């Protein structure tokens, strides 16, 4: 598989300060780089003179790359003749009268509640009410603009806007939910033959940028995803990863009413905007939004069960299909796997190397555990590994029998568990002898089983109760949840099997 290396020029530049003149203006050198990288011709002939509003206001974090991105939009339009770009940070541009002159809007890394004054909360009541009415009117104008048949382009942080306005999230396609990556990543083409992906020649590519993950309402049921991170190249234990399905979209299109939406998260770094492939991708996206480039925007949803990304749903939320337990000991209730007493519960399938994601909560004083690689369900303690799940919230010092510990072997590095009654997230990564546990976004276990070389003894010299050295424990087996007293609940239980690591 050929990899296209893009964005490498960033490694040759000493710093962002070289890209902008004093006051934030883009330097002539940068404009020249953009112009040289921009396509000579647009992928489609403009049906009529087109006008694009490039909006640059931020009420939250402001990216340094915004002036470069705005300059790129102007240059793309000027060089190809496909459109004329007008840059502004004045919210009055969103009145129906002023929007009427435009065919599409590009939100260039805009953040926050754009249509409310930054000091809204400090305003007198009468001024707050006036600002609220104006905010509502401009929001309606934007929705009407797009749904009525015009276009919307979101660049990078445009998903970091209007969190209190659900209609915006639906229109744009999702909300920013962290950026675990700011480094070279491998990008795959979800739609290799899509017109907006023509510049990539059907090949995956590597690029260095700040890469987002997205939360609700993001869903492939509503969007046609064009680019995403290659899931086989992702470190699942990387801090900050929240999604459990390895679905990290980078760009997409969608219909919104009669209008068209294009979003691309690339654009944190200045050099993104003089990358030829990315510029061509943006140009095609702009032309799609303007209505000049015909392209399929029908969603391509994931299938149920095992997803195209290799994730298997272990618990369907409706019944105990795929599980083994004594009758009445566990139950499926409102999408949750609930302990009812009388024994543990086990997967019918066995797993070796994997990424397991789940959520759990417990009653005060409850005690459970997640067993994995368990060879004998009737002797689970001696033939499997247990990560402790119990109420140890608030303990200043945690040990080998507290929540998150590998039972009797290794204490968690942090006490990450939430109070009783609150849902916790757990990601467990098993690759050969290496185990990693991430609870509520914090890495709490990094363990190499091969370090446990002696029967009944941990590497630190402390005793344990195991008749088999952990390095010799089975490397495949059942996954199970322990019944050790008290109320315990599990949900959103998914696993991604990995190629077995030798040894």
Description:
This protein is α+β, with helices and mostly antiparallel strands. The chain has two domains: 4-290, 3-Layer(aba) Sandwich (Rossmann fold), CATH 3.40.50.880; 312-497, Sandwich (Jelly Rolls). Helices cover 16% and strands 29% of the residues. The protein has seven helices and 27 strands. The protein has helices at 28-37, 66-80, 96-99, 125-147, 166-172, 276-290, 380-383, and strands at 4-5, 51-55, 84-88, 104-108, 111-112, 151-155, 160-161, 175-176, 181-189, 205-211, 214-215, 224-229, 249-256, 259-264, 312-313, 323-324, 330-333, 336-339, 345-351, 354-362, 367-374, 385-390, 424-431, 434-439, 442-448, 477-481, 488-497. The strands form five sheets. It has a ten-stranded mixed beta sheet with strand order 1-10-9-12-13-14-6-4-2-3. Helix 1 (28-37) packs across helix 2 (66-80). The longest helix is centred in the N-terminal third of the chain and has 23 residues, at 125-147. The two termini are 28 Å apart. 44% of the residues are buried.
Short structural description:
By secondary structure, the chain is an alpha+beta fold.
Relevant terms:
ten-stranded mixed beta sheet; 7 helices; 503 residues; 2 domains; Rossmann fold; Jelly Rolls
Summarize the main sheet: 10 strands, mixed
First-residue to last-residue Cα separation: 28 Å
Name of the CATH homologous superfamily of the largest domain: Class I glutamine amidotransferase (GATase) domain
Which CATH architecture of the largest domain would you pick? 3-Layer(aba) Sandwich
**Adjacency order of strands in the biggest sheet:** 1-10-9-12-13-14-6-4-2-3
User: Count the strands?
Assistant: 27
**Rg of Cα set:** 26 Å
Helix content: 10-25%
CATH topology of the largest domain: Rossmann fold
> Roughly what fraction of the amino acids lie in strands?
25-35%
**Low-confidence residue ranges:** 1-17, 303-308
Number of helices, where a helix is a run of at least 4 consecutive DSSP H or I residues: 7
CATH class of the largest domain: Alpha Beta
Shape: elongated
Q: Look at the structure and give the mean pLDDT.
A: 91
Query: What is the number of domains?
Result: 2
Overall SS class:
alpha+beta
